[in-house]
Every structure is written in C-alpha cells, then in structure tokens.
Amino acid sequence: MADEISLQVNAGMHTITASPETPLLYVLTGDLGFKGPRFGCGLGQCGACSVLVDGVEIRSCITPTAAVVGKSVTTLEGLPAYYAARMNVTPAPELHPLQEAMIVEQAPQCGYCYNGQIIKGAELLFQTPQPTEAEIRSAMNGHICRCGTYPRIMASIQRAARTIAVERVAVANDTEEPANV
Amino acid sequence: MSESNDLTSLARRDFLQTAGVVIVGFSMAGKVRAQPQPVGANAVQRGVVSGPPDPDEIDSYIAIHADNTATIYSGYVELGQGGPTALRQVAAEELDLDLEQVRTARVDTFVSTNGFTAAARTAAVGCTELRAAAAEARRVLLEAASMQLEAPVGNLTVAKGVVSVRNDPRRAVSYAELAGGQSFDRAFEQVSYNGGIELPRRSPDNAVAKDRDAYSLVGTRVPRPDIAEKVRGTYQYVQHVRLPRMLHGRVVWPRGQGAYGISNPTVVSIDESSIDDIPDVQIVRRNNFVGVVAEREWDAVRAARQLEVTWEPFAAALPGHEALFDSFRSAEADDLTDTDDGDVEAALSRATHVVSSAYRGPYQSHGTMAPNCAVADVTADAALVMCSDQGIYQTRDGIARLLGLPVEKIRVQYYEGSNAYGSSCYRDAAQAAAILSHEVGRPVRLQLSREDEFGWDNYGPALLSEIRAAADANARLVALDYQAWVGAAGGLTTTSQLALGAAPATDAIYTIGPGVDGPGGAGLFSVHPTHIHMYDVSNRRIVNHRVVGTGRLRVGPLRAPMDPSAFFALEGVMDELAYAARLDPYEFRKRNISHERWLGVLEAATDAAQWQPRVAASRLSSATVVAGRGIGLGTHHMTQNQGDRITFAAAVVDIEVDKSTGTVVAKHVYGAMDCGLAINPGIVESQMVGMAVHGASLALHEEVQFNETNVTSLDWGSYRTQRFADHPAVTMIVVQQLHEQSSGGGEELLPPVVAAIGNAFFDATGVRLRQYPLTPQRVLAALAAGSTADPA
Questions:
Q1: Long-range contacts of A127-133 (CB under 8 A, 24+ apart)
Q2: Beta-carbon contacts of residue B219 (< 8 Å; ≥ 6 apart)
Q3: Given this model, what pLDDT does residue B507 score?
Q4: pTM strictly above 0.95
Q5: How large is the ipTM?
Q6: A–B interface: beta-carbon pairs under 8 A
C-alpha cells in the first residue's frame, strides 16, 4: 500500500506517495522527474539506472525506495554539486571533471548508458583519484555500453583523473592560504 | 539542436532580375494556400499538413529565419551515430553559414522529408540531397542579393550568411534581410537514383555545388552537439517523453519467440483476478495482443509480470541453436544463383591449392541498451506517436493500418532511444503504444521489458557459408565458389501479428522492402558480388540457398546485416589459402587485390599495426596464454541503397587465448576505413571505435540461444556482450577521399573486425575455428579435438 515517503535527493528533501517496495528508479523518474537515472534492464545487470547512495553506486531499478530513506541519494543532475562539496571545490563547477572529459573526448554515441558510466566513474574517482588502467577496467566492468565506447570512457576517466589531480593541488593550496594571510 | 516549427512571416518581396529574366520569389510563410494538399507539404504547410513534402522544393529541406539562422528538415534521424551533425555541416558549408547558424528540426511526418536512416543513407543519400537543395538555395539568395546590391553574382562573396560585394564590404545584405521567415517557393531538380545509382540530372540549370577543394566545414571534426547534452543528462530520449494524463503501459508477450510463422502466439485465456491486488490497472486485449496500463509505472510493471495469460503451447519447430546449421543443410531451400562467371569447377580441378570449408555465424540480437519505448496519444480521428523508428513514414503507415485511420491523420515524431543499429523492436513499441492509447482513450507511454526486447527481436540472421576457393602455384586466386544458407524469416511486427490475429507468411522477409510493416528489404539477406569485390578472380560463383524447410527466427537488419558472418567466412577461407601456400596473409591479399581503395585500407591497417610478414601459426607456443594476430577485409553494401558507392574497410586484431579456460580476449584492434568523403572524420573515427568493440563482442560473445520451442536468452546473463574489463585498445585510421562520394561509415568496419579475430585465433593456436562466437566452450572443444594446423 502507498505510504508517504521522504527522500533526500541531491541535497533536497522530497516527499512522495508510493508503496515502499517501489524500486527507487520509478520514484526518481516518475514522481521526481529526474532524467539521469533511466531504465535499461530492470534486473540490475546493465547500470543505466545507477545513482549514488551515501556516495556508493547502486542500481536504482532493483533497490526498494524504503531502503534509501534516511540516506542521501545523488543522481547525475546532482553530481557536480556533490563533487564540489566532497572535494571542497568552490565555486561548484557546472560539470564533474569526468563529464567535461567525456565532452572533450566526444565519448558517447547514443549516450543512454552514460548516466551509469558517469556515476560509476565518479564513484571510482572519489575512492581512487588516480586509478590505474587495471583499476578502471575492474571498477567499470558492471556497466554495459552497447555502442562500444569503452575505449573513450577509459580515456575520459584518465583525463578526469588528471584534472582532479590539479584541482586537489589547488584545493590544498587554498586551505593553506589562511595561515599566510 | 532541434526546434519546433516557428515560422514567422514577413511581407512578400519579389525580385526581378532583368538580365536572364529570372523571377526570384519569396512567399509569405503562414499564408495558407487555398486547398492544402492532403499529402505533400511545403513550407507554408509545415507542421500543419501531413508529409512528406515535395522533394523537388527547396522549402522542403531548408528555411532561413529572421535571425539569420537556418533550419534543415531532412528526414534523417540521430541514431547516436552523428548523422544530423553531418547534415548540418553539409548545409552550412554549401550556404556559407557558420555551423552554429544551422540547426536540424525534429524529424516529424508533418515536417520532414522522407528519409530512411539506415544502410549509410544519411551520408550517401541524405547529405547528397541536402547539398543539392542548399546549393539551389544559395543561388536563389545570391540572385536576390545581386538585385539588392546592384552587383553581379560573380562579384559577391558570403560569410556567416552575409552577402557582400567583393572589394566593397560595406555593400552587404544578410540572408535574413533577403529571405528571413519567408519561403523560397522554388522548385529544382533533386538528385534521383535508380537501383541505388545516382542518375545524371536532366536539367542543365541546376545550381553547382561548392568546389570541394574550397571546403572549410565539411571534412572537419566538429563536435556533435548532442554529446554535451547527453553527458549533462539534459538530453531528451523517448523514454523521457511525458504527456498530460499519460498512463504507463506494458505488453504481455510469451517468454521468447518460437518458430516464425509456425508458433504464432495465441491467447487461450486470461485470469484477470491474478492482478486483483494491484489497484487501478486496466487490461487491454485486441485479438492476441495483451497489454496493461496504469497510472504508476511500477504498477504496470508488476501487473505485466503477474498477469496470468495462458498461451497455446509453441510447437517444437525450432532446431535449437546447437543443431541450427545441420538443420539448414538438410532443410528444403530456395536456391538462387547470383553470380556464375567463368568455369569454377574446371579452375578448381586444376588448381595447386584448394580450400573447402564451412563457416557458421549465429543469430545475434540488436541488444539495445534500453528496450524500446514509445508514447502515443490516439483520439477518435487522429494519432500522435513519438518513437525511435529509423523511418517515420513507414511507422506511420503501419499504425494507420492498425488503427484504421488515414495516414495523414497519423503524426509520427522521432525521439532518440538507445542504440539500435537496425530494426530492434522500435516499431513494435510504437504500434503497441498506439493500440493501448486507442483502447483506453488516454495518452500511453509503452516501455518494453528487457525480456520482450531480447525475446522478440528481429535478430540478425544466421548464415552457413560453404566456400571452395583455389589458388595457383603463385598463390593467385583462380576460383571462388560461395554457397550460402541463410536462416531468415519475418514480415510482420510482433505487435501487428498479435493485434491483427494474423498468421504471417513465413518467407515475407524476402519480398518486402523497408517501406512495409516489418523490417528487411529485398536482397538484404543474401551474398552478392560486393562480398567478393576485393579479390581478383575470374572464375566465381555465388549461390544463395534460402532455407525454408525448418523453423527459423524472426530477423531484421542488424548493423552490416549478415556481413560479419559473410566476411568471417570469406576472409577465413582466404587465410586458409594463404596458409596452404605458406604465405604471409597480408602478402597473399596484396597478390590478389588490384583495387586501389581496397589496397589502401589494407595498407593503412597493417601499417598502423606494424605488421611483420610471416606465415600464420608460425609462432605457436606451448604457453597457457598465447597471442595471435589476424587480418580481415570487408564492408556492407546494398546496391539498392548505395549503388556504386562502396565503403572499404580493413582490420588487424591482436588477441590472446587462454588455452586452459578457453577464454579469448581481443587486445588491440587496428582499423582503417575509406568511406569516400568523410563529412566528419571525427564522427567516422568514433563509429570505428564502436565497431572495434562491437565486432569483438560479436566475434567472442554474442549468440541468440533457443531450444526447440522458443528463444531462451532473455537477459544480459544469457545473452553475453563485450564488457569493460577486457575490451580492446583501438587504433583507427580514417582514409579521407575528398573527391569521392560519401558511402557511409556506421557499419562497414564491423565485418573485418569479426573476420580478423577468427584469423587471429588460428595464428595463436594453429586451430581453425569456423564457427563464432569463439566462446570458451567452443574453444576448449576445438583445442581438445586437436585440429591440425594444416587444413589440407
């Protein structure tokens, strides 16, 4: 039966009415109108529906909405702000460095899987800011791209890692500044 | 970069050019002609009257707006392969506009020209037509400018849509001032084709297209605008379309199709009480078409899963995927000799090296990233359908039949879904949405499930190739005999078949064109002379055996239809001949190819790979993991679409084989492709990267599985695809041919990649595997059988 459920998505609180076992995907797309997470298989196999929950990538198509109550959900729409907050980057960039890199690399073709590729790639870069090729291959293996753009996703993650390395230095310098003022 | 149809009107202005007495007229947009044509809109009727518009009118392709921008209305859609960006480049180039000044309109049966986005047609046909229309538009605009500026056309120059007098730039007028918001109202002779061959144009008065040496936009790597939107998450896929009062719909189909035309899904009963616990769900039935609609999507999903429908059991009419090829060989077939030149048998009998081999290529799925989706709003006398069809006018015609409405009452708009690479179930989704909306009287968004899409796809057909080839003592080809057994059936979409309650003809796939309800096209699933185009051989024969006497699956075009299998076979046999002659496979091909463009891609790919000449399988190792490399040539070509415009592609692939597990990994794919004028080499390269990975996926992983009653590979666990962890590195070479006609670059590298992987396996192991995908099970069996390295 339908319940009133409060969810934190992209730093905002949303109250919706749904049965608690409804997969999060249908709440995000149907009730809240997000375009990032999207239906691909409904089986947790492909990764098109990925979101971050407390910073960890999950498959929203098989995650009951009740399971994320009290947690923080980040969709593709909220990723740049989440990145800025977590990395202490101000002002918040318009896009996550991985998104910028994917535009430079002209990585996607149909782009349908890119919600998940970006969410998973961002999770990897939070956990391992300078991943090796082997670490990238391993981390990304659960995300299917049927256009076959894996080589360009790889190049994009590596490019983003370089950007993040520069930004981390900049952030570190910023945080040291007050002592010098 | 899409826009709605915002035609603003300006006052009519006529220009009379005294010299030559040419009337150049711009008529007021929005002025409705006395009697609108029921079919055939021009600019005046755009968005109001059902198309397609007259192909011989500039207005059908291009509009100039008051802000000095232009919109193009070509009916070629974004399939994720960048076609509309190429169209924009062509129009901007020809009109001397900046790329940012040109956008494409959403493809729509009330707006767009009649294009079918498939088989290289965007580059080969769509861009050619648009180039002709844009050249004509530019001439009209310059004639008008000549009047206004009182200077001969020859003294005018154009930049960013502003016409000025050479050496006197203050005398200038913009396209907007000349024609903004008005229609051209000018007919011209469009390019026409016969059997895919571009015909000479009859009128001596056609505008001359820009000299290609003067190109500044065409041939450059401008970025695709949709990519930034896709990465940002703002792109509007069909899955995102929402209409007021819209319901969510799902179809209820049996789990996995049976033998096409034999196992026709038939409803015995529906237990409506099985979904009593789900509120507000409506069951829709039309003949054997069953669906559900609900306010909330999850309720529709649950109801479709839970609804108990009893179907008549499918007949045990399929051979099962393991016994498929034996069934082809023993079944009744229609035989069609395509080519019979010279004396094949005599040449075979006196040759030094003879190879006779059978190669097998499986049914494979489109495996769209997302199952298809469509939104329909059907009222008593009209319908709006938003969907992801490669041919909106074909969709319209099928829906009109299903709804019993005249075609001009059906408006179809294209929204991109996920990758298709051919006829996935997009038309099923559009038709199902229309039926559901028609039945419930509200807009319906229909989303197929993963299982629907995998189970009822129009698969790429299975192909059995028996090839005999022979070479003389100098390793020159003297005979080639290609016997093909094709397992293909189709004709009606699943939705049409169910809703009409029709038992379809089982061989319709061979006689229909893309304009009919189902996918396909005459000759699409046959081997023809282009398949052996690269090799110089005078004694040659091609016979197509169209299997009819056994159960087959529903098929349709899948990226380079049938040709990954055809070139896996042909190039495998060429490698076998090279090995029989103890010759480096590259050297063997050079010796037997004289066509410069085939040699060009072969050299480009082997150069990129730093090919070292040696006989295949000459470095066998006893290690557990062994490496090999192979060459493949190939293309996809359909005369009816491309005429004499052939794309040339070559690949070299490095692989590793783990002899203990049977796992094959493609490590590096080197590719070269010559698709004539590459309008955007960046997009071509991007396609090549995708084909390298897609090719590895086809060669190593993808195979539709089925038992005797129905298809059983219904998810990503049972239908395997290339994954990220072991995807190949890629090196791609775009061979630019500025002065050749564009022949398309979205599918032609796929066959060479599959072929090269097959040849690399022999190089690595000394064992020839003539059936793909090279799955661990198949590899272990082949290695255990200890097939000799010597095919003789």
A1: A129/A161, A129/A164, A129/A165, A129/A168, A130/A161, A130/A165, A131/A157, A131/A161, A133/A158
A2: B677, B678, B679, B680, B681, B736, B738
A3: 53
A4: no
A5: 0.95
A6: 167
